[in-house]
Amino acid sequence: MTVIPKDSRLRYHCQLRQSAEERHAETHPLTWRLREDGARVGFEEYCAKEGYQSARQTLTQRTPADIIDTMKQANVRGRGGGGFSAGVKWGLTQVGDHLPRGYLICNADEMEPGTFKDRLLLEQLPHLLIESMIIAGYANRSCYGYIFLRGEYVEAARSVALAIEEARQAGLLGSDIAGSGFDFDIALHTGAGRYICGEETALINSLEGKRANPRAKPPFPGQSGAWGKPTVVNNVETLCNVPSVMQHGADWYQGLSGGLSEDGGTKLYGVSGLVERPGLWELPIGTSGREILERAGGMRQGHTLKAWLPGGGSTGFLLPEHLDLPMDFGTIGQYGSRLGTGLIAVVSERQSIVSLLRNLEQFFARESCGWCTPCRDGLPWTVKILQALERGEGKPEYIEILEQHTLGLNPARTFCAHAPGAMMPLESAIRHFRADFEAGIAHAPLEGVS
Amino acid sequence: MSQNTNPLSTAADLITTDGFQLHEDDRQAMLTERDHYEQPQAACIEALKIVQKRHGWVPDGAIVAIAETLGVGAGAVEGVATFYSLIFRQPVGRHVILLCDSSSCFLTGYEALSEVLSERLGIGFGQTTGDGRFTLLPVCCLGACDRGPAMMIGDDTFGPIEADDLDELLEAYP
To answer: What is the pLDDT of residues A22-50, one digit of tens each?
Structure first.
């Protein structure tokens, strides 16, 4: 028996593709503490790099209302793909005097196709997340926090569990945190698969030990979430912005994008697919797709760019002509797509678009929770049609049927965002590459031949 | 705490408890997990994983044992057990291979790799090799997209994997 060595080239190890010299506290709030060697930043090292200073100051010097105001001014938008203002979300927990203390949940269920950013923070910088959750928990008067981590992230689970223990030992979790009078603790909750758990209300059901079917909104989780209590669900990367926003302020955060975008802050951008150097970079939000692609070394030799997904499988395809757009929520939204998670997947000219769509829709069909009929039944139909087109056995009406699905599986017709997310790449692919779909239609049989 | 007081537990009648003995350490671990939540049902996913860690999969009797331990209905536990893709309600091989079939791996060679792997193992997705060594399953984007195509064997994540790497990889999991 052989064992695959820890340093084997076959083992996956996530790594930021930016050197330490390029990263500074004032410009790279998410990643400046990461080590060059890609090893985990432990408790002592984190503390030596200004760790937990923001939480200590915030908990002793600021009120929850004041923190939420700063978050609203900074306009930290949800990095899990939704783009919703974290400050506005947090504000919901403050409505009404009689709300009980509730829960803070970190959504670490990273499963969006093409997305590999939260893994980096969870594995290598878990204390930044813990510190962020302490501040967010305080601002939302949460009594307890959960990190909902996908079950496959085994290394991240080890890293986060150790960090929780280290923070507890240091008096940063538990009762009277850092002498502030605030009581708060965190538990790691690992999942057992299923993409739909990333939808925040499905996640809450899953946390409660139920099947991960989404819930109707309203009520929004901020008012009634886990066990009916006010609940805030934020993505890992979103939360990790909080300590630096508290330390340096909303104006500093807004200024990080340096006029590239109306949005503030930085973003963990990445590229996957057939490029020379796939990877991850922390860059000002609003950086263009072209610059990100250049950092990835461009397309692999022998390949040219046909299309790209800006931020996951549930975003719409963009074309090479869109590479100079700022990668931010508002701009990408104007071009029939979404920023999503901000991790680009490139599609080579040599890749069949119909086959790629078949793969994407197989994913969404399999991952439908089955709760509502349009999603449960509609998505497998799109797969069947795409398979027929792939084999060159499509009928003339098939493209129209696919287009009907892109309308019929849209918001207000389905229960949650799953099916609309599935239709975004399909709708945009038909719009951009109709001829590729038409090529899958079988030649009409001769008159009189059945 | 007895499940007999819970009307939902009648679903347990459909599930045989034959031959399943919940290990005392596992029962204690479940009770510890239960304390992390406002209501005991929240611990049932973790409880299923605890059973699975020891037995490799979740036999019928474990559903009843978990329901009794947590004081929830067996139907609720079974509902959860059948929803989540990483809970196995039938025996699996000693090593479960999770092959990522999402878009970034698809763009970097998943289909060719999948074909070779299937051929090498002599099984398709959802199947276990005759010697009980490997079970092959598809999995949602593994978040290893910068190094696709990627896969997990047990708790280990690998990528990028080429067909030529498979012998070396598989050999490490006897």
So the answer is: 999 999 999 999 999 999 999 999 999 99
Kind of pairing between the strands at A103-108 and B95-100: unpaired
ipTM of the complex: 0.95
Q: Which residue has the tokens 């079974």?
A: B78
Break chain B into its structural domains and give their ranges.
11-83, 95-171
Cβ distance of B85 and A278 shorter than 8 Å:
no
Q: How far from B113 is each of B92, B141, B149, CA to CA, in Å? A: 22, 16, 8
- Please give the CATH architecture assigned to the domain spanning A256-348: Roll (3.10)
Residue A448 clears pLDDT 70, i.e. is over it: no
Architecture of domain A23-254: 3-Layer(aba) Sandwich (3.40)
Full-prediction pTM beyond 0.80?
Answer: yes
Sheet holding A279-284, edge to edge: A279-284, A266-272, A343-348, A305-309
Q: Taking Cα atoms as reference points, which of A207, A68, A224 lies closest to residue A146? A: A207
Residue of A nearest to B142 (CA): A111
A211–B80 CB contact, under 8 Å: yes
What are the backbone dihedrals phi and psi of residue A105, each rounded to the nearest 5 degrees, phi first? -120, 130
Cβ separation B144–A113 shorter than 8 A: no
DSSP-assigned letters across all residues of A158-198: HHHHHHHHHHHHTTSSBSSGGGSS--BEEEEEE--S-GGGG
